[in-house]
């Protein structure tokens, strides 16, 4: 439990990364672009409309923090795709956002398998696409050994923790959602048997307050083990509900009352 609190504190307290790692020319992206975003030219870069922060050199390639932000007057976003060009499955996650998250300030941790551009392509309410990204020096994130043994994985999988603090800007709160799940990529080995571990990861996530969507995620193998999501949002006084599905057919649901922090041990 103490580890989870530490991880959440790191996300909340970490300063913005030095942004000297601009996107680099990427032959991989040139091949992927049209199939991922449906156009043959890059959407414009506009750091006010959307910015992506990531470390120039990752401390741990299996848990690379990526922060997505907008300026205060930026047009709202409806959808966003995160892409790690050099990963075996480049599309890391696809998000939909509710109005309560605008302007966006959202953080997630990704696996990065090789030196690569990490980019976000977002769709604004009027259908216009914009892009942001950084070049990250990291290697081996998708095949890095799992942090826990298989017995621990089975015992804790699906546990959740939610924390909300009224420390955001303009009356917003900062929410932190932590989910216990190994998010096995299919490229890792069991450290006891030395056999490959089959891919097994969260592929659907939906977070609401009352009936209102905060965000939803459709994910692949690139979201980190025990994922943590940190975001600013406009609270509406309703409980926060979380719905999680994984590729093995497991489903977890939890409702967190407005003034309580609980752990789900389904």
UniProtKB/TrEMBL annotation:
Coiled coil: none annotated. Residues 168-253 form the Sulphur oxidation protein SoxZ domain. It comes from the Bacteria. Keywords: Signal. The keyword Signal applies. Residues 1-18 form the signal peptide. Residues 49-142 form the Ig-like SoxY domain. This is Quinoprotein dehydrogenase-associated SoxYZ-like carrier. NCBIfam families: fuse_rel_SoxYZ (TIGR04557).
């Amino acid at each position: 439990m103490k580890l989870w609190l530490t991880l959440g504190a790191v996300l909340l307290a970490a300063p913005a990364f030095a942004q000297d790692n601009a996107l680099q020319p990427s032959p991989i992206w040139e091949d992927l672009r049209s199939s991922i975003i449906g156009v043959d030219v890059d959407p414009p870069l506009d750091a006010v409309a959307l910015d992506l922060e990531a470390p120039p050199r990752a401390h741990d390639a299996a848990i690379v923090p990526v922060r997505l932000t907008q300026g205060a007057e930026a047009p709202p976003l409806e959808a966003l795709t995160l892409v790690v060009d050099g990963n075996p499955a480049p599309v890391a996650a696809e998000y939909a956002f509710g109005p309560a998250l605008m302007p966006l300030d959202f953080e997630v941790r990704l696996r990065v398998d090789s030196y690569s551009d990490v980019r976000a392509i977002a769709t604004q309410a009027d259908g216009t696409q914009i892009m942001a990204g950084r070049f990250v020096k990291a290697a081996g994130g998708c095949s890095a050994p799992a942090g826990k043994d298989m017995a621990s994985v089975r015992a804790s999988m699906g546990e959740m923790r939610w924390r909300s603090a009224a420390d955001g800007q303009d009356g917003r709160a900062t929410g932190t959602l932590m989910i216990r799940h190994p998010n096995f990529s299919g490229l890792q080995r069991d450290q006891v048997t030395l056999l490959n571990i089959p891919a097994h990861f969260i592929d659907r996530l939906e977070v609401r307050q009352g009936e209102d969507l905060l965000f939803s995620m459709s994910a692949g193998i690139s979201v980190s083990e025990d994922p943590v999501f940190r975001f600013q949002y406009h609270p509406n006084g309703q409980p926060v509900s979380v719905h999680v599905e994984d590729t093995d057919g497991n489903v977890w649901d939890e409702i967190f009352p407005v003034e309580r922090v609980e752990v789900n041990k389904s």
